[in-house]
Amino acid sequence: xxxxxxxxxxxxxxxxxxxxxxxxxxxxxxxxxxxxxxxxxxxxxxxxxxxxxxxxxxxxxxxx
Length: 64
Prior knowledge:
By secondary structure, the chain is α+β, with helices and mostly antiparallel strands.
């Protein structure tokens, strides 16, 4: 998924923590300063759950 504003180590860590806190998320791996790969169980979480988790902490995100 694409994430705006994930251009510092601190921001990247906040994004990872927020996504890992979503029930059903199995793994989170940033691929660069604007994208992160999220492995999640679709029976427990939706793409919108992931996007909302990031919006709550001030990041804009969307599926690519």
